[in-house]
Amino acid sequence: MTSKEIREAFLSFFRDRSHHVVPSAPVVVKNDPTLMFTNAGMNQFKEIFLGEVPVKYSRVTDTQRCLRVSGKHNDLEEVGIDTYHHTLFEMLGNWSFGDYFKKEAIAWSWELLTEVYKLDKDRLYVTIFEGDEKEGLERDLEAYDLWKNHVAEDRILLGNKKDNFWEMGETGPCGPCSEIHYDMRPDEQRDAVKGQDLVNADDPQVIEIWNLVFIQFNRLKSGKLEPLPAKHVDTGMGFERLVRSIQGKTSNYDTDVFQPIIQFIAEKAGTNYGVDEKKDIAMRVLSDHIRAVSFAIADGQLPSNNKAGYVIRRILRRAVRYAYTFLGFKTPFINELVPLLAKQFEGVFDELIQQQGFVQKVVLEEEVSFLRTLTTGIQRFENYIAEHKAIDGDFAFELFDTYGFPVDLTGLLAREKGLHVDMDGFQGALQQQKERSRAATVIDTGDWVTVSDGDETDFVGYDYLEATTQILKYRKV
Ligand code: ATP
Ligand code: MG
Ligand code: MG
Ligand code: MG
């Protein structure tokens, strides 16, 4: 099945079961102070779960474009390095608002996966909430008994509160969930280590594909749970992971969702995908990030210096740095991916094709301006090394802080010249900066970064995190 067919089969499966197909909400959230970007299919139904608006359709289904780059769900660090977390992804979902509950949700998910998509039953695992005595939460035996009708008992696993209990916030609707995981390892490996042991263990070949949330409680201010008069179902399945499972690939990027874009990038970079791990990561980053940036712009969020706009700017700049550093793109290139992407999403999310020219122009302008900064930084680097025999920590930090060089880029440039970078010194300078920024209310950390303490602590965290964790990640590959 092609990815288009897979998406359509999901929607028509639930349409046939009386679900109303609704459009995706924009990825940019404008009227919710607790959320910057849509990060799950249920976001657009929040007011229904809270009982603030009447239910128009009691069964709905859709594919929701989601962005997980800030706040509670921030997967940015993993993107490109691993093969199954994206910045922007589609979450396929079906909902029951006070209509059907666990029985149907469980039976249908199993039917869809095994009969329509024909996924191998011997590679699927399901989890149920194990309960939490301290919190007074019971084991979800109801779900366990229902799963037993479909799945061998040794494939039904217990999951903890973190993975298998969903809450909207400190108070409000909540409930246990069941996740479905898929094991893509070759037979020999599956014989050696049981898949059961690898569920929720960060194994890149045994991954979560679907989460079925059963909203049955309301958490009160006192912390007490009371049963909801009307119970709801909220499910979310990662489309790209599903496609990968059905297409029998070991990476989301090997599916027809990403390959056309990756092939285009590889050709323009004069390389092939699958030859050099560093280049592969860069190609994955580009093919992923352009999706987040393009839809954010199409949905009304321009790159800028604060809040959501700043997050988008950082994502685009991350892509530019990978393109520049590992693929040799010294002039704007990423904007050329916009038309390809727009065409790919035609008929699914038409927002992009409708604004293709505008989106491409914004990306191009961002690329031009950031490449100028990078080039100036490189000039500064050249001048510096003409007079020094090694890169000291303060200078690596200046490049990072003023010119947006992550320390791996500095490391790369230094290696090319056979020079050493004082990483400890860099970390020290980074730490000092962090402390300074904590102390200040408003601080200007460079030519594009203006952050105020408070609202935007998220991004400051990401900035520093990225600078430091990338060092570790690059050592690994
Ligand atoms: P994971 O544990 O893999 O990070 P999750 O438990 O955070 O996933 P959920 O919040 O349960 O994910 O979201 C529902 C589904 O959305 C997941 O089962 C998965 O298939 C998909 N998904 C979640 N995060 C991502 C992502 N960053 N990129 C692609 N798909 C994702
Ligand atoms: Mg996650
Ligand atoms: Mg999970
Ligand atoms: Mg989950």
UniProtKB/TrEMBL annotation:
GO annotation terms (biological process): alanyl-tRNA aminoacylation
Cofactor: Zn(2+)
UniProt catalytic activity: tRNA(Ala) + L-alanine + ATP = L-alanyl-tRNA(Ala) + AMP + diphosphate
Domain comment (free text): Consists of three domains; the N-terminal catalytic domain, the editing domain and the C-terminal C-Ala domain. The editing domain removes incorrectly charged amino acids, while the C-Ala domain, along with tRNA(Ala), serves as a bridge to cooperatively bring together the editing and aminoacylation centers thus stimulating deacylation of misacylated tRNAs.
Portion of the full sequence shown: 1 to 477 of 870
Keywords per UniProt: Aminoacyl-tRNA synthetase, ATP-binding, Cytoplasm, Ligase, Metal-binding, Nucleotide-binding, Protein biosynthesis, RNA-binding, tRNA-binding, Zinc
Its biological purpose: Catalyzes the attachment of alanine to tRNA(Ala) in a two-step reaction: alanine is first activated by ATP to form Ala-AMP and then transferred to the acceptor end of tRNA(Ala). Also edits incorrectly charged Ser-tRNA(Ala) and Gly-tRNA(Ala) via its editing domain.
Encoding gene, per UniProt annotation: alaS
Protein name per its UniProtKB record: Alanine--tRNA ligase
